[in-house]
Specification:
The chain is of the alpha+beta class. The chain contains 28 helices and 7 strands. The strands form 2 sheets. It has a 5-stranded mixed beta sheet. It has a two-stranded antiparallel ribbon with strand order 1-3. Strand 6 and strand 7 form a beta hairpin. The longest helix is centred in the middle third of the chain and has 69 residues. It is globular and about 95 Å long.
Length: 693
């Protein structure tokens, strides 16, 4: 459950106001039970001023507050009231009204799944709050900006915004917003399956909620914790926690949170394999959702119902709910909903024998799962952990420093009390200064040590993320497809003739996997400082001939002619294995980006102390933007070949490392539709080298 609503209720100011015919019409709509008394009170206040002029701040404030109260019951009312509030605020130049109107519009577009449009409106609201120096409003806006990044899957950006909120909330001593922000951070970690870190923040939220003393806020946190306990497999604790929350929501008639709590209870029963009980509580939630306008939470409900029906063997019913959940997820771009919906639809279609449809949803599931696992934001979460640990240690050092200073001040006070002579006081002050300096140096040393560790972790994360990205994208996909086909064939769900039809594609995929693994292992060795360069006298002609033989089948498939213009006496002083990798990658790339009936030429030009080796093709060429990226190690820039051949983007950065380890340089000349020429240099095999060899 997202906490924008809670934040809004705590942050939007209330007043007695005026309103016109438009709002009276909206208030006549029956929008459910949740917080009915509060919205009724708004209606009463509005009706008092319905005959007054609309162009005043009281009218605008009340209208915008009403819009936010309508959010989960009639979302279009939020848009209508926010637009009207913005129009009137601009007319009388009411800055606070304009900011709150943009805030309402940001919330509306967020619930519609238009996150960029939401962020655009929230940014406008933020600029106004900064200009007006309204820190309370700024806190609410920053919280909602963080939530939009959460929805988009940019978890590192979300965390940065939440940290800003936390610092501001602490300055304002706003306990309710501190509860909201810490709980949002907890939810981010739970999303990444980091339950330990998530529960650390939930415990902070529980302590803050105890200070606030609001049973509804406590129940909201308990609902999210119950869902997390269910994901952790602590089902008894999850059931106890959600039952306590449900009791509070039923007593206070909080419809939207009660619908969510019933859904969580259904989730717990589902994980206990009690599918009929799960459906019972999902049905209670579904009844309440009929009064709500909350598509994001309805997706989770529909997915749960579909899974329970599938477990009971009711495939046709399950398919209806799964398809609806999948369609809603695509509508508002909820990536987790797309993943779960595709997974369920794959299982259902497979059970029904519709293997074509099953394979389509299986591919969608794999693609979405890969995107989630490759999210760069996971790196941001790890980096934030390091930063938080650093801040904790820093605070501890500062606290120790302050205690030491207090101790030294006591020495001074004691000295003054007993009327010790001024010389003794001077010595004591000097001693205090010396200790202060020593403590500061210790703090600086520890800070530098932490920064070094942070840099080390950053480098390790870069290597890890690059490896995982390649493995997840270029290896897991083909292997997963291969496994799926083998399984279908083994279980008799695919005929021998159908399986044989996939053999050419499987061979191509396995060849790509083998080539990728070779590059990946070589690159991994260099990154882990395990690859030693062992130079010796090496014949470039032999290496080129071996690679022509290796790649000739791939070239023949595209009718590409491979030409070796390197003479037999082209002897170099280099590590033959490393240069073999360089030449193989350059030739493979040339074949990949050369159209059918093309030519790839490999040659060498003799220099004074070096050989300049070139690999030239008449392929598609590259633009300036691509040329600026291909040798960089910070990413895995990759494109598809002329026949849609896949690549990892790792080969050229690996070539650069290998060439430089052999005291050479590598560069490229290219033009669009004219081809590319890659050059690299390696030392000649001098007489002294030959003797050593």
């Amino acid at each position: 459950m997202i906490y924008i609503l809670k934040a809004f209720k705590n942050q939007i100011p209330k007043a007695s106001h005026r309103i016109g015919v438009l709002l009276i019409f909206l208030l006549s709509v029956n929008v459910g039970l949740a917080q009915l008394s509060y919205r009724d009170s708004l209606q009463i206040e509005i009706s008092k001023f319905q005959h007054s002029t609309k162009e005043n701040t009281e009218y605008i404030d009340l209208m915008l507050e009403l819009g936010l109260e309508q959010r989960y019951f009639n979302l279009d009312s939020l848009k209508l009231l926010s637009d009207e509030g913005l129009k009137l605020s601009e007319k009388i130049n009411y800055a606070n009204g304009m900011a709150n109107a943009y805030l309402g519009l940001g919330t509306f577009y967020s619930d519609k799944g238009k996150y960029d449009e939401s962020l655009n409106n929230l940014q406008k609201a933020l600029e106004i709050s900064i200009k007006e120096q309204d820190d309370t409003l700024r806190l609410t806006i920053l919280s909602n900006i963080g939530t939009q990044y959460d929805y988009k899957g940019d978890y590192d950006l979300a965390l940065r915004e939440f940290l800003k909120c936390m610092e501001l909330a602490e300055d304002l001593d706003d306990q309710k917003m501190l509860s909201v922000i810490n709980e949002n951070i907890a939810n981010l970690y739970v999303t990444q399956k980091d339950f330990d870190e998530g529960m650390f923040y939930y415990e902070k939220v529980k302590k803050i909620n105890e200070k606030i003393g609001d049973p509804v806020i406590i129940a909201e946190t308990m609902s999210n914790m119950a869902s997390t306990y269910a994901d952790m497999g602590k089902l008894e604790l999850a059931m106890f926690t959600i039952n306590s929350a449900i009791k509070t929501f039923e007593e206070n008639r909080i419809t939207d949170w009660l619908a969510y709590a019933y859904q969580v209870k259904g989730k717990v029963y589902l994980k206990q394999q009690k599918n009929k009980w799960a459906l019972y509580w999902y049905a209670q939630s579904e009844l309440l959702h009929g009064q709500l306008d909350d598509l994001r939470e309805e997706i989770q409900l529909l997915t749960g119902i579909a899974e329970a029906q599938l477990n009971l063997g009711n495939d046709s019913i399950s398919k209806i709910y799964a398809q609806q959940a999948y369609d809603f997820s695509k509508k508002i771009d909820v990536i987790s909903g797309i993943e779960e919906g595709a997974k369920l639809l794959y299982k259902i279609n497979k059970n029904n024998g519709d293997y074509k449809k099953a394979l389509e949803f299986h591919e969608i599931f794999k693609e979405v799962s890969g995107k989630i696992s490759r999210k760069e934001s996971q790196k941001g979460l790890t980096m934030l952990k390091t930063k938080i640990d650093y801040e904790r240690q820093k605070e501890q050092l500062i606290e120790e420093n302050e205690k030491a200073l207090a101790k030294q001040k006591n020495y001074v006070y004691t000295t003054l009390i007993i009327l010790v002579i001024f010389l003794f006081i001077t010595l004591l002050v000097k001693r205090n200064a010396k200790i202060q300096k020593k403590l500061n140096k210790a703090l600086i040393r520890k800070q530098e040590d932490l920064e070094r560790k942070e840099k080390y972790l950053h480098d390790v994360n870069q290597t890890k993320n690059k490896l995982f990205s390649i493995i997840g994208h270029d290896l897991r996909g083909p292997i997963g497809a291969f496994q799926g086909l083998i399984k279908l064939f083994k279980e008799g769900e695919m005929s021998k003739e159908e399986f044989i039809g996939f053999v050419p594609k499987l061979k191509s995929d396995i060849d790509n996997i083998a080539f990728t693994l070779n590059n990946l292992l070589s690159w991994g060795q260099t990154q882990m400082n395990g690859a030693m360069t062992k130079p010796g006298v090496t014949s470039i002609e032999s290496i080129v001939n071996e690679n022509i033989a290796l790649l000739s089948e791939v070239a023949n498939n595209k009718s590409i002619k491979l030409i070796n213009r390197i003479e037999s006496q082209t002897l170099t002083w280099c590590d033959s294995d490393q240069i073999d990798i360089v030449i193989r990658n350059l030739m493979s790339n040339a074949i990949k980006f050369t159209p059918d009936n093309g030519i790839v030429t490999i040659g060498a030009v003799e220099k004074t102390k070096q050989w300049e080796i070139y690999v030239r093709d008449n392929g598609v060429g590259m633009n300036e933007e691509t040329l600026s990226k291909i040798f960089k190690q910070s990413g895995t820039h990759s494109t598809y070949g002329t026949n849609d051949e896949k690549g990892t983007g790792l080969g050229l950065s690996l070539c650069k490392e290998m060439v430089e380890k052999n005291h050479g340089i590598i560069w490229v000349d290219s033009a669009i539709n004219k081809g590319s020429s890659f050059y690299f240099t390696i030392p000649k095999a001098q007489k002294e080298y030959k003797k050593t060899a």
